[in-house]
Amino acid sequence: MVTKRFALRENSYVIEIASNDGYLLQYMRQAGIGCLGIEPTASTAAAARGKGIEVIEEFFGEDLGRRLAQQGRQADLMIANNVLAHVPGINDFVTGFVQALKPQGVVTFEFPHLLRMVAECQFDTIYHEHFSYLSLVAVQRVLERNGLTVFDVEELQTHGGSLRVFAQRLDTGKRAVDSSVGTLLRRERTAGVESTAYYEGFQSRADDIRDGLMTYLVEARRQGRRVGAYGAAAKGNTLLNYTGVRAGLLPWVVDRSPGKHGMYMPGSRVPIVDEEYLRRERPDDVLLLPWNLKEELMAQLEYVRDWGGRFVVAVPRIQVL
Questions:
Q1: Are residues 148 and 245 in the same domain?
Q2: 164 and 75, same structural domain?
């Protein structure tokens, strides 16, 4: 989509911030488009280099952005997926994009949408890697303060509801602002994201989710129903630790990642097992901890229905699917 929309060619240059193992940039490289990854984590940077991608192993900010500009490496497109919410110094971070972006270049940011998080009480999105929880109202303000302006926005379903924001340089950008920007800003302001009232009640709704999950697990045990879980990821860790669930109520969680097998969920100490364990144990219910992937997971685990098994999610409420 982005290569077509912004006419990226072999003489174009793309920089991805928090490029991880190069999974996205490998396709830019295959398309013959020049690219660079910025990734401070050594192991994932090494994995990207193994795919032939150049990586600078540093945290991104104004200083690195200026150095790239001085080296003549300004980008036609800069990509920052699920990193804007992770940076402690958001102003320094955003200023780096202005430095490293060509006059008519484009930046895309993706991040979980605060509006959806609060409306649906997605409290398991709140965990240690996140420094900010972002609305378009807030992001527009931060970007404009530091030299960028939003010209388009898309609503995505990833992470339970995310935004993809398109921005350009405030001083040189010439792209017209799409109507989607004003439409979403009005929706957010009408909902009240700029007022404290919008956030009141979030705690009590999170408590209701906690109580609902605990009640469900206790009742299942009383009824002799065997429950296992799927997905040893951050959302599940937050949910289980806030709820206070331990292995006595939830004996195991399945995950497809071999690196997690034989390990434990942090805090709750629930053992992590492979998918073959699920096939062998045939639980009555499978609690899908990454509820945002429920459709994909139910399709992947359709065989659970063969023995009469059910799928359950806990957010935004206990629900048997």
A1: no
A2: yes
